[in-house]
Design a protein that fits this description.
CATH architecture of the domain at 43-161: Orthogonal Bundle
Helix content: over 70%
CATH topology of the domain at 43-161: TerB-like
CATH class of the domain at 43-161: Mainly Alpha
Number of strands: 0
Largest sheet: none
Mean pLDDT: 81
Strand content: under 5%
Distance between the termini: 56 Å
Structural class: mainly alpha
Low-confidence stretches: 1-13, 17-30, 36-41
Order of helices and strands: HHHHHHHHHHHHH
Shape: globular
Length: 262
C-alpha cells in the first residue's frame, strides 16, 4: 500500500522518475511495517513467549542452586510463585521442568541468555521485564544472597545492561517491595525512611517537581501495562508479576502525593 501511494505522489510531484523513487521508498516502509506486524503477532510472538518462559524458570532454578544446593525453602518459594501466577496442570509441570534444568550442575547461564537475546536484543522493555522477574524471585524470601545477586548481575551484563542502570533497577525493585501489600504504609504517620523508599520506588529524588514525579510514575505504569507487555512477548499467564509491580508503584506514588498534599 505504501509503495503505491509513494509512486502516485512521486508522479504528481515530479513525473515518472520521482514515481519510481516513491515506489522504492514505499516498498521499504511496507517491509518495515510487515516486520513490525510479524513481531507482534503470530508465530514470532509465540516463539518469544516460549523463550521468555524458558529463560525465567531455568535461571530461577540456577539462582536457587546459587549456594551449591537447592533447599526445601527455595523449592517452596518456586512453587509459591507458580501458584501466584496461577500455573496448573501441564503449564505448572513445564515450569517445574525448566526450574530443574536450571538447577542442574551442567546448566550454562550465558548460552541461555544468548538465546533470550536473539528475540530481545532490540527490546529494552523485554530485557527489563526479565530482570524484574528474576529479582522478584531472588527476593521472594525477603532478602537476596550475594550468590543470587551475582547471577542476576551476570544476566544483566550478558544482556548489555550498564552496571549503573542495573543498580538503579535493583534499588527500585527493592524499594517497591516495601509496598508489596499495597497500603502497608497507609496507616498512621509516614516516617522519613518510608517516604524515601517511596521516592526510590518511583525512581526520582525527593527534590523532584510534581511534574517530574508524575512523568516518572506514568512511564513506570506504561512499562507495566498488560497490553504493551503481551505485544513485546511476555506470556499472558506471567503478567501477574507486572500487575503486582504496578500496584506497588501505585502505592508508593499515592504515599508521596498524600505527603505533598499535607
Amino acid at each position: 500500500m505504501a509503495k503505491i501511494i509513494g509512486a502516485i505522489l512521486g508522479f504528481l510531484v515530479g513525473g515518472p522518475l520521482l514515481a519510481l523513487l516513491g515506489f522504492v521508498v514505499g516498498s521499504f516502509f511496507d517491509r518495515g511495517l510487515g516486520q513490525a506486524m510479524r513481531f507482534n503477532y503470530g508465530a514470532d510472538r509465540e516463539r518469544i513467549q516460549g523463550i521468555f518462559f524458558d529463560t525465567v524458570f531455568r535461571v530461577m532454578g540456577h539462582i536457587a542452586k546459587a549456594d551449591g544446593r537447592v533447599c526445601e525453602s527455595e523449592i517452596a518459594q518456586a512453587e509459591a510463585i507458580m501458584t501466584q501466577l496461577g500455573f496448573t496442570g501441564a503449564r505448572r509441570q513445564d515450569a517445574i521442568d525448566r526450574f530443574k534444568q536450571g538447577s542442574e550442575s551442567d546448566f550454562q547461564l550465558e548460552p541461555q541468555v544468548s538465546e533470550f537475546m536473539t528475540v530481545a536484543k532490540s527490546q529494552p522493555l523485554l530485557r527489563q521485564m526479565l530482570l524484574e522477574a528474576l529479582l522478584t524471585m531472588a527476593l521472594a524470601d525477603g532478602e537476596m544472597a550475594d550468590a543470587e545477586r551475582d547471577i542476576v548481575t551476570r544476566v544483566a551484563g550478558y544482556m548489555g545492561v550498564p552496571a549503573r542502570e542495573f543498580q538503579r533497577l535493583l534499588d527500585m525493585v527493592m524499594a517497591q517491595r516495601q509496598f508489596h501489600s499495597s497500603g502497608s504504609y497507609s496507616q498512621g504517620a509516614t516516617s522519613e525512611s518510608e517516604l524515601n523508599k517511596a521516592y526510590q520506588a518511583i525512581g526520582v529524588e525527593a527534590s523532584a517537581t510534581d511534574a517530574e514525579l508524575k512523568r516518572a510514575y506514568r512511564k513506570l505504569m506504561s512499562q507495566h501495562h498488560p497490553d504493551k507487555l503481551i505485544a513485546k512477548g511476555v506470556p499472558e499467564d506471567m503478567l501477574k508479576l507486572a500487575t503486582e509491580k504496578a500496584q506497588e508503584i501505585q502505592a508508593a506514588y499515592d504515599l508521596i502525593k498524600k505527603k505533598r498534599a499535607a
